[in-house]
Design goal:
By secondary structure, the chain is of the alpha+beta class. The chain is built from three helices and nine strands, in the order H-H-E-E-E-E-H-E-E-E-E-E. It has a five-stranded antiparallel β-sheet, with helices on one face.
Length: 183
């Protein structure tokens, strides 16, 4: 009997200590949440979105992560009936441009085309930005002044040619080889 009572007191003490520590931890979480969510609020976010779109009405306001509010996503219905989403900075109330989902790079597509054309004079036929393979790059298809076609890969941050490959197009008889490395 005394042994069960002693075990009960021991377990109870462990639970009490756990509750105290858990309470302190939860207190810190709540304090962080309160600090992180000190924002302009839904009303001001709606007003900022409507100021950019006269005659519109707010349909919905969303916050993706309430514990770390950075942007209010305000869905509006414009005066012409079309829907739009306006992102509002949760601290400043400024309109935030929509994200492309792509990381920011230092080189524009026009600069990358100029780099490719400096290596292979001619004209840029097709240009695109590629992601997901580590370094963001531009892939530029160039038709040279002598009629050959090259796919030139340009680093989107360093503006240097990473690789180039002569490609065959219908009516062209010769195909070059891939040249890797930094040119």
């Amino acid at each position: 009997m005394k042994r069960k009572f002693a075990i009960g007191i021991g377990v109870g003490s462990v639970l009490l200590i756990g509750i105290i520590i858990g309470g302190l931890t939860l207190g810190n979480v709540f304090a962080q949440t309160t600090t992180a969510t000190a924002t302009i609020g839904f009303d001001k976010a709606a007003a900022a979105a409507l100021a950019q779109n006269p005659g519109a009405k707010v349909k919905e306001i969303e916050v993706d992560n309430p514990a770390a509010v950075k942007v209010y996503e305000v869905e509006i219905i414009k005066a012409d009936g079309t829907r739009a989403e306006v992102n509002i900075d949760a601290v400043t109330g400024a309109v935030v441009p929509p994200s492309t989902g792509l990381p920011t790079v230092k080189v524009t597509m026009a600069q990358a085309e100029a780099t490719a054309l400096a290596k292979y004079p001619g004209s840029a036929v097709v240009a695109s930005r590629l992601e997901g393979c580590g370094t963001p790059v531009y892939s530029i298809e160039v038709k040279t002044t002598d009629g050959k076609y090259y796919v030139v890969t340009v680093d989107a941050n360093a503006n240097t040619v990473i690789s180039s490959n002569q490609v065959q197009v219908p009516g062209q008889k010769t195909v070059g080889t891939m040249r890797g490395g930094r040119d």
